[in-house]
Records
---
Amino acid sequence: MVIGITWLTVPSVGFSMTDLNVTELGIPQWWQFMYPLLQVAADGREWARRDLYSAALDRAGVPEDLRLIQYGPSGNYAAENRVGWAKSALTRVRLLESVRRGVFRITNAGRAFLADHPYEFKQSEL
């Protein structure tokens, strides 16, 4: 099913979903979830994966109808999948860390990076 772009403002990010490079599904690209993920994790607490993903989707302003889009036979949710790729990238560059299986938190490097990039950042800046 193809869904059109939803016209929402992304809280505290300085751009709207119309500015994002969304796919034909209407969901932002995976790398566009990195900033909302770091913003959510900036509270310093330990986040269970599902809670972190949901909070990042909230922060990015992704509406419920787009969150419910599933990939064909796998049944995986497309938006959650993209947040997962963003989380993996942030973990790989050590801005997020795995505390234990399925639990993540921001690192000191992640806090410093977010302080240096208070409004947004590009994937190439990692």
---
Amino acid sequence: MDTQSQFETIHDGDLGAPVLDVVQEAVDAASITYARTPGTDVEQTLRAELRSRGVRARSEATVHALADRIRAGGEVSVGHHDGSVGLRDPDTTVAAADLPPGAVRRVGSWAVGNRDGELFAVSRRCRHQLADLSEGTIDADGCLVCPWHQARYDVTNGEMVTGPRGFFGYHGPTPGYTELVRGYARVLRLRVADVVRRGADLVVVRRG
């Protein structure tokens, strides 16, 4: 059984993204919650994050497997490499013409960018408050900048190199809070993928 078949939609209708991309976003959100509050009930949090996105696991075994990986720390990826919860092999594409130098685009669960001809792909959700990084910008140092509170990411390894300036609706200096966010973001780095050219398309290929 492949990993996609381990999940199902709750209601009829389009999720707006592939099921595995939706599941990955839920897992990322649950991982961030656990990093902030280690005593969190991970299974309950994960179920809630899946449900809020219109998806559920077909069995509790799948929920427990993902929750165990979240508690173990580090990156948790969802896919069908070996028919279990594990590595993904996404073949999502964007037209090369739609990604000129300086641009960032949403490609499935990835923020794909072009920094002066060097292509990159990182997971879309900021480790601070889950802003969509595909709506961010590339700064003069080649870092991806979050559109909400300007956290900066090294796109070669997914590390947050500058913490956020603010939270929720506030924008400004927050020295202690900024370092706290950077602290757990060092563990929960963005996922990083390769981008290869195939004809007129750019294809995101998961590493691993």
---
Amino acid sequence: MQFFMKFVAIGKQLGYIHRDQTEEIIMLYFTMYKNELNRYWKSSNQKSITRSMDQLMELFFYGLVGEKQ
């Protein structure tokens, strides 16, 4: 978790993560995402989830809105 919190701190400094988001909420988001991904991984065909991993990671980092293109 220490790495993740450093990642978040740098993201806030660089403006990639909203500064007003608390560590508690960020950790809740991370934990929810991790738990659900783990549940999905265990219940799915691992080949199909491996193909989806890029999209899942993009959703984690950019959300549904993502970057303006």
---
Amino acid sequence: MICGLFDINAVIALVRYLSEALLRRVESTETGSLTISSVVAHELHFGVYCSRIGFLPQSWN
């Protein structure tokens, strides 16, 4: 059963080990009970794609 839905900031904090408390909470959660939305998945994909090609949209400058 899904009991947690991460936003983009939480995923980035986990990937970069920015929050020890969040990491401990995730580690103590039952496998398969946390997820991300398709919007967050797309944001991650877009961010990785842009960083690989060195692209920063004009409006972000």
